[in-house]
Write a structure and sequence with these properties.
Blueprint lengths: L8 H4 L14 H10 L2 H4 L19 H18 L4 H10 L8 H11 L8 H12 L28 H6 L26 H7 L10 H24 L11 H11 L8 H12 L12 H30 L15 H19 L2 H24 L6 H8 L4 H13 L3 H13 L2
Helix pairs in contact: 2-5, 4-5, 4-10, 5-10, 6-15, 10-13, 10-14, 11-14, 12-14, 15-17, 15-18, 16-17
Length: 426
C-alpha cells in the first residue's frame, strides 16, 4: 500500500476543530487512541457478550469481543486499502452503546425509553462518541459553535468524520431504514441528528461507508466464530448433534433470522461444507490437544471468511485502495450462509438454554425496576453528570433520556448493585 492517503480533509475533519498536539500522528491514529483509552470501552469488560461476566472465570465480554473484532477488521481493511487505524477505531467503537445484560438489557431499555424515542445500542454508541464520553466541548461563543445544539456542550471524543462514519452500522434514524421501515435497527436518536447530519455530509442516503461494511463483517466473523468456540469449550455444543436431522431442522429455523432469503437446503449445504473440513471439531474433552483444536477452528474460520470477502471484493473493484464510498464489501453468499449457521448454533445451544432464559427474565425485571426507581427519584440516584443533565432538561423527554443514559453506562455488576440499593433495600 502506498503512502499517499485517499482520505480528503473533509474525512479528517472534527466536529469541533482542534490543533494537533504532536506532529507526526495521523488523525486516525488519534481517533484510535481516544477510543482505546476511553472509559466507555473499559466498561465493556463488565458487560455481557454471551456468558455473563460473573458466570465464568474467563468469559468473553463485550470488551474482548470488541478487541477481537478490531483485530479482524484492521487486517481485512488494510488488505483492501483502508487506513487500518480508521477501521480499527470503527471496530473498537461499534459496541460502546451496549447496555448492561447485552441484548436483553437493550430490549428492556427500549421499552423503558418509549416516551423519549426508544433505545438502540448502535444509536447509543454514536451518543457516547459525540456527547456522553467527555473529552472536548463546543466553544462557548455561539458564533463559533457551528452545528452543536448548544454552545459549550460536550462533543464527546470529537472523532473525525470518517471515524464516526466507520462506527455507524445503521446510518439512519428510527423508522428510516432504506428497505424496511419497520426495522428496529437504527443509528441515531432524534436529539443527536445535528452531529449525524454533519458526519454524513456528502454521503449517499442510507449507505454505509466502506470502512463500516468492513467493521460490520468483522463483527459477524468475530462473534460467530468465538461464540461457537465458547459453546464448545463450555460443553453446551456437541458436534455430533449437528448431524441429527431433527436438530438441523430446528437450527435452520434460527438461521433464517440471519439469512431470510435462504432455504433449509442451502443451510444444510453450508453446514456440510464446514463439517467436511479437516479442522472441524469431532468432539471436545478439555485436553490441551482439544483446546488447541478449538483455537485452530477459530483461526481457520476467520481466515476462510475474511479471505473470501477480500477476494470477492477485489474481483469486483480491482487492486486499488478501496475507501469511503468508492466500493462496498462483497461477501460471497456461501460464506454468508456459513456464518449464519454458526450464529444459529450459538443461539440454539448457548443462548437458548433454560437457565439463560430464566436469567434474561430476571435481567429484564432489573432494568425495568431501575428505570422506574431512577425516574421517580431523579436527580437522586443519578451520577453527577447525568443529574446535571436531568436538572437542565428542557422537557420530560430530555429528562427521561438522562435516566436512560445513566442506566446504559452501567456494567452488569453495577446495574445489580444500584438495583439492590434503590429497589431491594429501600
Amino acid at each position: 500500500m502506498d503512502d499517499t492517503t485517499p482520505y480528503d480533509p473533509a474525512a479528517e475533519a472534527r466536529w469541533v476543530p482542534e490543533p494537533d498536539k504532536r506532529p507526526g500522528r495521523t488523525a486516525f491514529q488519534r481517533d484510535r487512541a481516544r477510543v482505546l483509552h476511553s472509559a466507555a470501552l473499559r466498561r465493556l469488560a463488565g458487560t455481557t457478550q454471551v456468558v455473563a461476566p460473573l458466570q465464568s472465570d474467563f468469559p468473553r465480554t463485550r470488551l474482548t469481543h470488541s478487541l477481537e473484532c478490531a483485530q479482524v477488521g484492521r487486517e481485512l481493511g488494510a488488505a483492501l486499502g483502508c487506513d487500518p487505524d480508521l477501521v480499527e477505531t470503527g471496530c473498537l467503537a461499534h459496541d460502546l452503546g451496549h447496555p448492561p445484560f447485552g441484548h436483553t438489557g437493550e430490549e428492556a431499555l427500549d421499552q423503558a425509553a418509549r416516551e423519549c424515542g426508544g433505545f438502540e445500542g448502535n444509536a447509543q454508541s454514536l451518543r457516547i462518541l459525540t456527547r456522553l464520553e467527555p473529552k472536548r466541548f463546543a466553544p462557548a461563543d455561539e458564533s463559533l459553535a457551528r452545528l452543536a445544539p448548544r454552545p459549550g456542550r460536550s462533543v464527546g471524543l470529537n472523532l473525525t468524520r470518517a471515524a464516526l462514519d466507520a462506527a455507524t452500522k445503521y446510518p439512519w434514524a428510527r423508522g428510516r431504514h432504506p428497505a424496511d421501515p419497520s426495522s428496529t435497527k437504527y443509528g441515531v436518536y432524534g436529539d443527536d441528528l445535528p452531529v449525524f447530519r454533519w458526519l454524513r455530509a456528502g454521503a449517499p442516503d442510507g449507505r454505509k461507508c466502506f470502512e463500516a461494511t468492513v467493521m460490520d463483517w468483522s463483527d459477524d466473523v468475530a462473534y460467530s466464530t468465538h461464540d461457537v468456540e465458547d459453546g464448545l469449550q463450555a460443553g453446551h455444543i456437541e458436534p455430533a448433534a449437528l448431524r441429527s436431522a431433527e436438530e438441523r431442522t430446528e437450527l435452520f429455523k434460527i438461521a433464517e433470522r440471519y439469512a431470510p432469503d435462504a432455504a433449509p437446503a442451502e443451510f444444510a449445504e453450508a453446514l456440510d461444507r464446514l463439517q467436511a473440513q479437516d479442522w472441524w471439531p469431532r468432539g471436545y474433552d478439555g485436553s490441551a490437544r482439544s483446546r488447541a483444536g478449538l483455537k485452530d477452528l477459530t483461526s481457520q474460520l476467520i481466515g476462510r471468511f475474511c479471505l473470501a470477502a477480500e477476494q470477492a471484493t477485489r474481483a469486483r473493484y480491482g487492486p486499488g485502495r478501496l475507501t469511503r464510498y468508492a466500493a462496498e464489501l462483497v461477501v460471497p453468499r456461501p460464506v454468508r450462509l456459513e456464518c449464519a449457521v454458526l450464529k444459529a448454533v450459538a443461539v440454539r445451544y448457548v443462548m437458548q438454554r433454560d437457565e439463560q432464559a430464566q436469567l434474561r427474565s430476571r435481567q429484564r425485571i432489573v432494568i425495568a425496576e431501575l428505570a422506574d426507581a431512577l425516574t421517580r427519584g431523579a436527580p437522586h440516584g443519578l451520577d453527577p453528570v447525568f443529574a446535571a443533565v436531568y436538572e437542565e432538561a428542557e422537557d420530560d423527554r430530555a429528562a427521561l433520556r438522562a435516566v436512560i443514559d445513566q442506566i446504559a453506562v452501567l456494567t452488569d455488576a453495577s446495574a445489580l448493585a444500584l438495583h439492590a440499593r434503590l429497589v431491594l433495600h429501600r
